[in-house]
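pinned: reference chain
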Amino acid sequence: MSRRPIVILTALDLEYQAVREKLVDPQLHRHPQGTRFEVGRLADGRCQVALALVGKGNQSAAVLAERAINEFTPAALLFVGVAGARRSSLALGDVVVATHVYAFHGGTSEDDGLKSRPRVWETSHSADQIARHIARTGSWARGLPAHSRAPAVHFGPIAAGEVVLNSRVSGHARWLESNYNDALAIEMEGAGVAQAGHLNGKLPVVVIRGISDGADGTKEDTDREQWQPRAVANAAAFAAALAEDLATEDQDDAQSTAPETGRSPTMHTTRNVAKDNARVMVQAGTVHGGIRISPEPIPPTDLAQALADLRSRLQRARAVGHLDEDTFTAAEAELTEADAALQTNTPQSRGRLVLALKKLRGLIGDVADLAAEVATIITLAKSL
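pinned: its structure tokens
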């Protein structure tokens, strides 16, 4: 499990509830200044999430994003909600993941008109790459409500201001078209959250929006048709999958950079492996301590058999109480996904295979020998 949580912020109660439904056993966490967070793990994995409601507007979003960052020191910060579409190619319910966020209200008023003074924050490269991989594989759609159609996922700029835009011909609409005509969607909090992330160094910040209206005068109609809860359910499903992968990446980075402990800084260990008829000689001027000769474990070469053996070991771990029922069920689901991906054997399915194995490793991270076995299988899967 990643030691650092993922913070998810929302502006509306229905957005908050859509994310909260993804959490298992959320617990109240009260900030000294009164902000209430709920902290729980995602139902399909071990990723810990700290969830908060910030209200409408970039200013409150920035203040509470900063508060959440200082309180939890998260691995990443996600903002999840609804937005209005700025392009007719976007359908209601589609998901937009910001590649960068515009604060579009900045400008200077001169005799010949209003001149734009844009501010923009880019999404971090690593978070963007993870989000695109999730979209390509389609694995995130498993988190959608039952019988829901998987919507399209779009990557592009999002414009964040202080108005609800419900027109294609108003002054604000013309201003956007003239100065930010590549924006896919418009909303009211992304710029504040992006600024908070920028002020906290390399913290990945991703804005994820479900399209609930066309920003074209039809908002009352789409609201009556319940497009807000439908759109944010899609955004929440994508955000949950992204949070899992960001947490796994954070765990991998922490393990790869963790310093070794318990060994004198002047001592070094040389590890030699002899295979077949080869013999190992001592390569040292002075030997401190003992020399240990042990057989080298043979890594699996048959991935299908390795997955089958792993399934048996998971069942034994559950039987002896090393895995609780919820963790076993979630791990079994990821292993089934890995099996299915292995059968397909395409570049996309190989990506799904590795992703499922990484999630599985995160789930069983508390059982060291199982986690080590999954790490070996991941290496084998990457070599396909």
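why pinned: Residues 6-254 form a domain with the Rossmann fold fold (CATH 3.40.50.1580). The chain has a mean pLDDT of 85.
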